[in-house]
Amino acid sequence: MADSFKIDFQPHGTVGTGDLIVFVDENLKPTPAVAEQIGPKAVDLIARAAATESFKGKAKTSLTIPAPTVLDADRLVVIGVGGEKDRASMDWAQLGGLVAGKAAGKSATAVLDLPGIEVTPDAVADMVLGVHLRRYSFDRYKTKKDDSKPNGAAKLSFSVADPAAMKKVQKAREGVAAGVIIARDLVNEPPNVLGPKEFAARAEALTKLGVEVEILDEKAMQKLGMRALLGVGQGSVRGSRVAIMRWNGGKAGDQPIAFIGKGVVFDSGGISIKPGGGMEDMKGDMAGAACVVGLMHALASRKARANVVGAIGLVENMPDGNAQRPGDIVTTMSGQTIEIINTDAEGRLVLADVLWYVQDRFKPKFMIDLATLTGAILVALAQEYAGLFSNNDELAQRLTAAGQATGERVWRMPLGPEFDKMIESKFADMKNTGGRHGGSSTAAALLQRFVNDVPWAHLDIAGTAMGSPQSEINKGWSSGWGVRLLDRLVCDHYEA
Q1: Which CATH architecture has domain 6-160?
Q2: pLDDT for 152-185, tens place per residue?
Q3: Which CATH number describes the domain made up of 189-494?
Q4: Is 0.90 surpassed by the pTM of this model?
Q5: What pLDDT, on the 0 to 100 scale, is given for residue 2?
Q6: Is 29 one of the annotated active-site residues of the chain?
Q7: How deeply is 215 buried, as exposed, middle or buried, from its count of CB atoms within 10 A (0-12, 13-18, 19+)?
Q8: Catalytic residue (one of 173, 241, 348, 484)
Q9: Rg, C-alpha atoms of the chain
């Protein structure tokens, strides 16, 4: 959210210069109130231009009329909201992103009176969130900026029925937008810049918002017995870390809720080294940890009325003479042993120790972990859904509902004794991979052995968090996936 960019709210009735953005349905007519505001000649102009450009008013389509002589505006931008079905399932954040993408002049005014849709303060706040996310770019390492790319309007005004009400609700969304952007920045950073120590320092910055942050170094982890996590990082010259973040916004003594993130800052695969093609993308193997940091920022910014623990395991998986080998057996903090079959199945080793630590120390109401864990989840769900594994139906249902509400969708995948059997080891309590078949479920089965009876969900975000699909609110490589989903989950069910 650049400092030079400004969003404001104004009452209906003002039509100035710059871009004027209005909305129509499939009948190509704005609402009567908007029609009165822009005048019958402008309404007729929309109809004539639509016929020329074959614009049908379908959802997520637009028509731009430059220099409309019947208005003071420099351009008239008409955005379609579609038919009744489209309007019933309106994604307001995506609509806000579309508005930001079409506002190309120095200033723009969007008249938020939409045909067939009630425009609530929450809807407007989500649109503003979408605007901020659409404008995001990661170009801090470019010495020459691309001047051919339009930066969009420097000022975007929303014409609304009650500006004061909109401002009040929108304030809370600013922290969520900032949280998503923090997560995106972390995932996009090059791995030479963002090692475990540097990542932990980014987490420590949350203390400015009142978050308590504790960093465990390798000596502290050795003392705790986190040998699975430490084994992953032992081939790197950069020491591993665990960052524990606590936001105490709920009642004193209430059980916290907990979010755990995989933070492999770079994953070469270790001794089981990955192919060279595309390995540069493995800087994003810490997207789960990035989400947790962004989420904690969002919750603290809006002063969420909940006690929340965020924990991230930060390691680098490298192949040097000290790296762990296939065939090694490590003892986890829980005392359970794991045979290493493939050193590239390392994220579950990191999470095993952090999950155990969190459930043992904090006794949380539930735990949710996020990890770019398996390529197998991409085979199953492409980049459309994150894989959801859970030992608790209520938690799974609430996550699914939050995913539908935010557009960060999850799909429940199977857990069961069959997958446990696939990770049985001849030499240890378990092995760290069950082979090609059911790879996402066997990885989740291993994690489940470290949660005891705590309600738990595992989100495999390998397909959604990096190399993310392009949308109206994401034009970059990292989407910051999960921050909005989990903020919505907390807001809907876990605040006092």
Answers
A1: 3-Layer(aba) Sandwich (3.40)
A2: 678 999 999 888 888 888 888 899 999 999 999 9
A3: 3.40.630.10
A4: yes
A5: 44
A6: no
A7: middle
A8: 348
A9: 25
